[in-house]
Amino acid sequence: MLKQIRLLTKLEMYNFWGINVLRHTADKKAKRKAILMAVVYGLVGLVVMGYICGLCYGLHTLDAAGAIPAYLITITTVFVLLLSIFKAGGILYRKQGYELVASMPVRNLALVCGRFFRLYFESLTFTALIMIPGLVMYGYFTMPKVSALLIGLVVILTVPLIPVAVSAGIGMIVTGISQRMKHKAWVEAGLTVLLVVVVFMLPMTSLGETEITPEMMKNYGDGVLVILGNLYPPAVLLGDAITEGSIGKLALVLVGSLLLLGVVIGLITVGYHGICIRLFHIQAKHDYQKEKLQKNSLYKALVVRETRRYFASGTYVMNTIVGPVMAVILSISFFFIDMEEMVGDVPAQMNMKSAFPFVLGAVFTILSVTSVSISMEGKEVWILKSLPLSRKEILDGKILFQLCLSAPFYVVAVMISCIALKLPVLEFIAMVVLPAIMILFAAVFGISVNLWLPKMQWDTEVSVVKQSASAMIGGLVPTLIGGISAVIIMLVPKAYTGIGYVAIGLVILTATGLLYRKNVLK
């Protein structure tokens, strides 16, 4: 059994992030593209590390350096959970290689463990990216004992266990329920989003019961630890293990994490073969009856084609629908936010309400469909190229589908936000117009990035939607632009807020027009 697990894990890790293919390919263009992607990933990594270092420095200036480890662990857990929860099912129940391995004397447990270790090591990479610079900053500020730093290394290995186990459990539940249903992608996407909301909302409900005493307000670090303890208790235990050098607390969380992991792996293994058979089994029906043929306009036909392709993939839907769903959830949350109290906590010269249109727009642009829509054509892209369509018409169809997909979420989110925030006329107009501009920019920018960095050769849709450079850049840049715009408009004097809205909106629209023109004229 152990030998089988070791061999299958080795096979999974051979092509970790496509490294094995890159090593043996003779395509110089592919190697140059891989180097470019590595540079992009490196730059993103540096940005993340810089943010973490700045966060740690901020906690240190607030005399809360002791809360740094627990804070980092909570951030990492949320990040890993979001990263893994939408791809765990695709990796664990991946069709590629299953038929070959299933015909061999290989136990289901070994196959599940091999794929599970791949999911763990991917999560461990991102954990190290966040935790290592943060612990270095913590060590610089507090000068802890060497034993505490050694415990910190074990903590890094421990942190991904719980979020990976939770994401795998959700993947198992969603896949198990949707396997027999006709519209698997719809059911899979809906269940995943519902479970994600539940997983993240349950800890938030405990915050309402958290009592912050005046003594905690004086000691910011204690207040942070109380909040983190209600959000994610293992983070505080692991943080204490580092700050106190407590092996007992580390062992408690480690044993609990391994037990949870063992239970999830056991449950997946029990029904693994049956679920895979029902997922990969294709039943041909010979009851086709010719009906009346319909003729649609060109763009309607293209949008229908994109719609069918989109909802045929649960992975595609789950990852790209997050932004619009989160935007609606954010707008609903405005009913429960005391705006007067929030505005009172910021400097008087900052107009916080003016930033909400850009904040909502930024959330909408998290991983647009167009940033991966060309790559999702994969090896069947020749079918699209063989159609009597111009480049402009094909790209317009993809952009129109993105806008049609976002439209109902946009209408609901804007209506709820305007009612909840009770915005004056200027902010009301901005709330209606600016998120729409951001959505349009994200759609056009996504096409531009995917044309620049296409990934047409792929084995699983997860590698396109979650791991491709176009997905990362297409989802990060528009969101970052929305965040920067929000900060800028808050710093603009209130008397010139309208001018600021117009100026930023025109800049984004101009960039959208230039990108669109460049795309269709290539």
Quick structural summary:
This protein is an all-alpha fold. It folds into two domains: 1-281, no CATH class; 296-522, no CATH class.
Account of the 3D structure:
- By secondary structure, the protein is mainly α.
- About 75% of the residues lie in helices and about 0% in strands.
- The chain has 27 helices and no strands.
- Helix 9 packs parallel to helix 14 (about 245-270).
- The longest helix has about 35 residues, at about 110-140.
- The protein is globular.
- Mean pLDDT is about 80; it is low at about 205-220.
- Cα separation of the termini: 55 Å
Q: Could you say which structural class the secondary elements and strand pairing correspond to?
A: mainly alpha
- Low-pLDDT runs of 5+ residues are 207-221
The string of secondary-structure elements, in order, is HHHHHHHHHHHHHHHHHHHHHHHHHHH
Largest sheet features: none
| Secondary structure: helix percent | over 70%
**Tally of contiguous helical segments:** 27
Would you tell me the overall average pLDDT? 78
Strand elements, count? 0
- Strand composition percent: under 5%
Which of globular, elongated, flat, extended, rod-shaped describes the shape? globular
Number of domains: 2
Give me the Rg, rounded.
Answer: 25 Å
